[in-house]
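Pilot study result, target chain (265 residues):
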Amino acid sequence: MLVYPHINPVALQLGPLAIHWYGLMYLAGFMTFIWLGRKRIITLNIRQLTNKSLDDLLFYGVLGVILGGRLGEVLFYNPSYYFSHPLKILAVWEGGMSFHGGFLGVLVAMALFAYQHKLRWLELMDFIAPLVPPGLGFGRLGNFINGELWGRPTDVPWGMVFPQVDNLPRHPSQLYEFALEGVLLFILLWFYARKPRPMGSVSGLFLIAYGSFRFIGEFARNPDDGIFGLMTFGISMGQWLSLPMVIIGVVMMRWSTRKAPTRST
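Predicted structure:
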């Protein structure tokens, strides 16, 4: 049995300014996005995207992630708490970001970027899909450092006690999701997207793989606090939100292989 190594969520204190690990994890994800994005631009010879436009793309993506992710957390998971404490909606440094909300926010942001830069939206989503998993992985590490989103009670040898919760050994589900959503998803998408693929297929694979990994990981994760917990058929809100992703991903991949043109390089 392991014990959660309590980590100060504040990485650096500079007078009244507190730099949180959670924020640093987001910064690491954004920096990795730029680094990998530049590699994809060179490898695929994408004429419509440059290093400068990639920086602009990240700016749009950051807005989509933060606004959508926070609104998703508020509306999907804990509306009663945040409506009772509206100022807490702004406290993103304390954690609490919904992937599914952030995903919807990014879709909107990318649609706006594609329109302004005269790009095909779906082709743009294919480009960024392999760049996303490292950020997801860093986010899960941030969850672990914050001691949040712990797992369900377990008797496995690596079960971890989170003293801030109780004395029961629990799955370190944040680390499971880091491995699935951050590492495995990245490897799968990066190698699949190295060659030209029919437009929409990379995005479809992202939806299928992330939705499946998230659905599996939720079996080890404690149901989120708020008004939901486990829902119909004993599955969580995160699992319910992941199922449409898998279905849409399957439809997209079937459509892309039959109808969509191959992305030019």
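One observation from the pilot: The longest strand covers residues 10-14. A full batch analysis is planned for the follow-on phase.
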